[in-house]
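dumping this here so i dont lose it
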């Protein structure tokens, strides 16, 4: 098996090092990741400047762009490597509910999925890298499972509680929950007296009931959500068709 590994925390992040270590035991891997932390970059591609790829001493490739850039360049001719699977992470912090729209971690996996390649995004629920060894072991076990029952390319979003391996409660298939609106922007002043703004934290969980990703990880389970990329609102399309045609 050949696996392309990326992330959004950058090629130096402990999460991608642990993930690459875990997967190199079971597959031929190539790592292509951003040269710096690009968390929150969603699916953006860099179109206004050229991209360059360099190789670090440990063999990882790093690129001066977004997670989507990394996977896009790797899959469209940047590397002579045709992966069977694209894996992203392990992210520092959860990507659940509405986070998935902003996540660069999920975006790197999505880019593989858009090219017809199965893809999995891995995130640890809490920041700080506690029990990263357990998360890497879980990631390897998930990659080793063949998701034949999904019949075709899949895009899986996995969130792993920061628990010792023995305390994790196993895989739980979930749907995305929902968050409240984001917290307010954080306003401050720069040294010149100008108003500046930091984007505030994500909203608290709103729909976090049984069956959601939020609920699974709160109970010690590893949450695994199959995603699709189809933004069409089918019911509203039908309503428009009834009135407008
Ligand atoms: Mn990140």
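and the seq i came up w/
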């Amino acid at each position: 098996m050949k696996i392309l590994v990326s992330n959004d925390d950058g090629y130096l992040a402990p999460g991608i090092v642990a993930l690459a270590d875990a997967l190199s035991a079971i597959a031929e891997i190539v790592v292509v990741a951003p040269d710096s932390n690009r968390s929150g970059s969603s699916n953006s591609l860099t179109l206004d400047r050229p991209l360059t790829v360099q190789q670090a001493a440990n063999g990882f490739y790093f690129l001066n762009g977004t997670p989507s850039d990394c996977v896009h360049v790797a899959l469209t001719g940047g590397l002579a490597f045709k992966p069977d699977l694209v894996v992203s992470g392990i992210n520092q912090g959860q990507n659940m509910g509405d986070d998935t729209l902003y996540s660069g971690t999920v975006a790197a996996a999505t880019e593989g999925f858009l090219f017809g390649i199965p893809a999995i995004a891995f995130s640890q629920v809490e920041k700080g890298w506690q029990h990263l060894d357990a998360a890497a072991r879980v990631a390897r076990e998930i990659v080793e499972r063949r998701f034949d029952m999904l019949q075709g390319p899949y895009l899986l979003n996995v969130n792993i509680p920061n628990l010792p391996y023995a305390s994790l409660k196993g895989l739980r298939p979930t749907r995305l929950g929902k968050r409240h609106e984001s917290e307010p922007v954080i306003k401050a002043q720069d040294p010149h007296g100008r108003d500046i703004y930091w984007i505030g934290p994500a909203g608290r969980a709103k729909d976090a009931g049984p069956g959601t990703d939020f609920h699974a990880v709160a109970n010690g389970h590893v949450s695994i959500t199959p995603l699709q990329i189809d933004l069409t609102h089918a019911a509203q399309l039908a309503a428009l068709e009834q009135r407008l045609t």
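The first strand starts at residue 2 and ends at 6.
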